[in-house]
Design a protein that fits this description.
Layout: H1 3-7, E1 15-18, E2 25-26, H2 28-42, H3 51-57, H4 63-73, H5 78-101, E3 106-107, H6 111-120, E4 124-128, H7 133-143, E5 149-153, H8 166-175, E6 184-186, H9 189-197, E7 202-205, E8 220-222, E9 234-236, H10 249-259
Parallel strand pairs: 1-4, 1-6, 4-5, 6-7, 7-8
Antiparallel strand pairs: 2-3, 8-9
Bound molecules: xylulose-1,5-bisphosphate and magnesium ion (MG).
């Protein structure tokens, strides 16, 4: 019975709760952004989100909320922009799902190796994302095999988007684990805040959109997952975890061990 795991056994790594956008996959600049722009074009709108503007818009999590916030900045009345955001986001979701199924969205380098290593060690894999279920399932399936993820929490199950902790809380609940047994991996400040508010330790693996963010409270910050001949740089290592140029099983084990309650 797994119920006992939630109360004790936090001394060892049992699962990892992974973010999708920007973490498992490089999906924002050349994925979601392109899909938003195609949806605008199809709707005969002149708006286009450039690379830099999109980086600022990423502060608002959730695609529909992001469109809504953008049109609010443009001065559009609320009822009009809510309807427009809903229809544009529905079309954007179809476009992005097609892009994912055509193989246009790539895993971040080193992710495949990390997942293989965790799986070989019996560490359970979970996903906590603010993205939409329609594309998350097909994308994970194509790139990694959906069956490898025991728990997948998307915005369908946790509608309050990050930095709200509900996606991580639900992932823990479904894993039936205490937070100390399941660190998170995130790429952004919103993701870090969500994970930490839910009580998870959190490794941040930055990308070009997030590297300048202030990751106060992160348990480890790397500039990539790292691979045998392409070491990741350690940007901050407040607990002295000493990763060997990549995010690996032993580093996550050391993190879980130090997160465990005393006694
Ligand atoms: C991801 C998001 C998502 C994606 C777009 O945040 O905020 O909105 O940008 O996906 P995180 P949808 O990585 O912190 O989970 O359009 O499906 O929302
Ligand atoms: Mg992310």
């Amino acid at each position: 019975m797994q119920g006992s795991q939630a109360s004790g056994a936090g001394h060892r790594l049992q699962a990892v709760v992974l973010d999708v956008d920007g973490t498992l996959v490089d999906s924002e600049r050349d994925g979601h952004r392109i899909a938003f722009n195609r949806a605008f074009e199809e709707a005969d709108l002149e708006d286009r989100w450039g690379v830099e503007l999109y980086g600022k818009l990423l502060d608002v999590t959730g695609g529909e909320r992001r469109i809504n916030a953008y049109f609010e900045q443009q001065g559009m009345p609320e009822d009009e922009r809510e309807e427009l955001a809903a229809s544009l986001h529905a079309r954007k979701t179809e476009i992005f799902t097609e892009m994912a199924s055509r193989g246009e969205i790539e895993p971040r380098p080193g992710v495949g190796e990390l997942l293989d290593e965790l799986e070989r060690a019996g560490v359970r894999l979970a996903v906590a994302t603010t993205g939409s279920r329609q594309w998350v399932g097909p994308l994970l399936d194509r790139l990694f095999g959906l069956e490898r993820f025991e728990v997948v929490v998307t915005s369908a199950e946790a509608p309050e988007r990050k930095p709200d902790p509900s996606a991580h809380q639900l992932a823990l609940k479904r894993l039936d684990l205490a937070a100390c047994a399941a660190p998170a991996v995130e790429d952004s400040l919103n993701g870090l805040r969500a994970a930490k508010s839910a009580g998870l330790a959190c490794v941040v693996v930055v990308n070009d959109y997030t590297r300048e963010q202030d990751f106060d409270g992160a348990d480890l910050i790397l500039d990539g997952f790292g691979r045998p001949h392409a070491a990741a740089a350690v940007l901050d290592d407040p607990h002295g975890l000493n990763p060997p140029g990549r995010l690996d099983l032993d580093t996550l084990r050391r993190l879980a061990a130090r997160s465990a309650p005393a006694g």
